Amino acid sequence: MIEYEEADSAYYLGLETDELRKLTVSGDEHACAYYIVRLVENGTLKEDDVKFLEQAVKNLNYDCALIAYKFVYGIKGGLYEDEEMFALCATVLEQYGFKDAHADVKKLFKKNQKLINETDRAVYMRMFTNYLERLLPSGCDGLFINIEKADKKDAPVDPKHAYKLRIYAASEAGGIFNQQDIYTLYFRDKYVDRSLIRLSERLNDYLEKSYARYLIRSYRISIAGKIQHKMGVYGGAIDSGKIQEKLVDGIEIAVTDERLSASDCPSCGGALDGNGVCKACGKKAEIKENKNDKIIIHRAKDIEALYCTQCGGAVDLDKDNKTAYCPFCGTTFIVNGNALSSGVLGIDFNDLRADMPEDATLPDVKFVRAKICKGISTILPDSFDIMLDEYRRIKYPNNPPDFIYTTPDTRVNLCLSFRGELSNDNVYLLGSRTAATLRNIRKDARMGDVQELCVNGKNILYFDFLTTALDGPIYNAMFFFSYNGQQALGSWNCLGKDRWFWAPIFEHAVKTIDF
């Protein structure tokens, strides 16, 4: 930085006065500082030239504020005595730990309290506006503004009377970015609490009128962490910089030899749906409840039955289980794990839910129960964190969810979105319609059964499905519920080949969710 500054200095010092003026007129505020110094040294500074300096100071340019403070607007001995501009220069320099400027502001405060407060307000509102302008192209979804006590690091000249204005920007994915302490405020009278409240009110007034212009859906203004004002979709991404609180550590996983696919009707032997109702005879079977809050993984005793993707007939496996042949249409397949891969588009799995392969081992994943967005608690991997924006833009380029939690490799995701109104009574209707729409739109999808759940008196609709992707099938589980009268949509997803492990976890997480 020193080398850059020296290069800039050499460049501007090498310019003629007319060239410096041209750059100043065009808006180069650094050139303006050198131009004014040149005129002061030559004794040719005119009021017409001072207007460029004044604008640069109002734009918070440090170099111009320093030149104006020393040579132009001095209260005693300045070329153009201007108490307001002098106070503005001192206020700007105060931000950079300029002790003399801070001392001057303190001296001027008693006689010029209104002037200094207004100047201070103009400066921090200018910096606040500049901050928002920079956020326009950055995907900011919400703001969290906190006014808090400064320390010696933030305000080396006078930490006793200093407070800092700190801003966190939040993305649609829930990640916090662009965290900045944009201004240090000095309260020099005894009415600090009243001044802090007035500051929060000014910020709120400004954002109420203009937050839509900055494409901000939410904002929250706090003093020392205590909320004073809020607007928009409050809660949203602003509260989700991290998983809020881990409630239970080390959720147990149990492996059973009872096959998942063995859930047959005890009356007729037909297949049961997710609610335990036989698809053939319509009778409801007794479903064993998981009373120990364990995650149950089902182990396979033999390879999953495979069916031809061309005609639907059962295929014959060779003795090594490496290839499969359809005796009905003649298609030959390669067996990849428990799936057929033939280059034919479509889902190659026979069953939506799979058993644990005989040669598989449980992944080294630790699970916890934790509070996430809006205080909702669920079971999730201990390694989960907010998805980074660069990954979110790739994986969810259109209409991304409000919250995206993911594993470090981004292969397993939990998404949550909150939209319009939805009552608890209408949850099943909305979820069923969404499942039907998805079934019609995604012809490649293999849909599972729709489950109408009731968790602690609250309705949840749950269904799962497989879809195709460039790198293989994706297993998805979607669920709907009403959160304080608001429509809540959640989804889990993982690679199709890993569904034997994640599918029971997704379902268990939904059935034990708490909100």
Describe this structure in words.
This protein is an alpha+beta fold and 515 residues long. Helices cover 31% and strands 26% of the residues. The protein has 12 helices and 22 strands. The chain has helices at residues 2-13, 17-25, 29-42, 47-58, 62-72, 83-94, 99-109, 113-135, 192-210, 389-395, 427-441, 499-511; strands at 140-149, 162-171, 176-186, 218-223, 226-232, 245-249, 253-256, 295-298, 316-317, 323-325, 332-336, 339-341, 367-371, 377-381, 385-386, 403-406, 413-421, 446-447, 451-455, 458-467, 474-483, 486-495. The strands form 5 sheets. Strands 15, 16, 17, 18, 19, 20, 21 and 22 form an 8-stranded antiparallel sheet that branches. A 5-stranded mixed sheet has the order 3-2-1-4-5, covered by helices on one side. β10 and β11 form a beta hairpin. α3 (29-42) packs antiparallel against α4 and α5 crosses α6 (83-94). The protein is elongated and about 105 Å long. The chain starts with a helix and ends with a helix. Mean pLDDT is 78; it is low at 233-241, 259-263, 287-292 and 342-349.
SSE layout:
Blueprint (H helix, E strand, L loop, with lengths): L1 H12 L3 H9 L3 H14 L4 H12 L3 H11 L10 H12 L4 H11 L3 H23 L4 E10 L12 E10 L4 E11 L5 H19 L7 E6 L2 E7 L12 E5 L3 E4 L38 E4 L17 E2 L5 E3 L6 E5 L2 E3 L25 E5 L5 E5 L3 E2 L2 H7 L7 E4 L6 E9 L5 H15 L4 E2 L3 E5 L2 E10 L6 E10 L2 E10 L3 H13 L4
